[in-house]
Amino acid sequence: MATQCKYCPLNRKDAFIDLSPEEVEFMQKFKVGELVIDPGTPILMQGSNAPQLFTALSGMGIRERHLKDGSKQVINFVFPGDFIGLQAGLLGEMGHSVEARTQMRLCVFNRSEFWNFFKGHPERAFDITWLGAMEENFLGESIATLGQRSAIQAVAWTMVKIFQRGAALGMVQNNTIALPYTQRDVADALGLSLVHTNKTLGKLKERQLASWSDRVLQINDLEKLAMIAMTDLRPLPKRPLI
């Protein structure tokens, strides 16, 4: 059975702004159902004109941009609470693909109601604008990482950002977080070879700062890792939940 918005488990997470009863009621009207998909299943395909938008209620995925020669660029990782399909909703088609890496439960919204969403509830429309701005900000930092951070700085930056997001969602236990992502995913995200990524992870492990193996990320010293990454540890801003 579909989860009613007023009982949404994400509403209790530190990562998200509290919704008013009126906003919860509005989202319930906008939501048309739920979809459960298996690991490895495409959610949205690059170039597609999907009729639906989604919020990840549970599970994790990955966003990738595919090139004509078969190579790909990992754009970012999908966490619970992420809004999926905004590009297609506004531009008519997806500029990247989204794939599930674990079993995922998705809240489903009809794209045809998107204009009514903006027109009938401007506060919620502003929330989507905020999410778009945050995505742009993150992509800017990602580009700076690709162009200016060394390999060890880039890997450390990735670890810090993933750890912070996981902590806000209550996914961190005893300084560890289970992740469905591989070292190949990290390498593809950072434009590094798999060998270079593996060696860089080994250096951080030798320093007893962090390790990423068997799809478990463990952070032993977040402050020192952030110093290497040339980033700060300011709390992540609370996100609106769509």
Task: Give the arrangement of secondary structure elements.
Blueprint: H1 21-30, E1 31-37, E2 42-44, E3 52-58, E4 61-66, E5 72-78, E6 83-84, H2 86-91, E7 97-100, E8 104-110, H3 114-120, H4 122-148, H5 151-168, E9 176-178, H6 183-190, H7 194-206, E10 210-213, E11 216-219, H8 222-229
Antiparallel strand pairs: 1-8, 2-7, 3-6, 3-8, 4-5, 4-7, 9-11, 10-11
Give a description of the structure.
- The chain has 8 helices and 11 strands.
- It is globular and about 55 Å long.
- The chain is 40% helix and 22% strand.
- The chain starts with 20 loop residues before the first helix and ends in a 13-residue tail after the last helix.
- Helix 5 (151-168) crosses helix 7 and helix 5 crosses helix 8.
- Strands 1-8-3-6 form a 4-stranded antiparallel beta sheet. Strands 2-7-4-5 form a 4-stranded antiparallel beta sheet. Strands 9-11-10 form a 3-stranded antiparallel beta sheet.
- It is an alpha+beta fold.
- The mean pLDDT is 91.
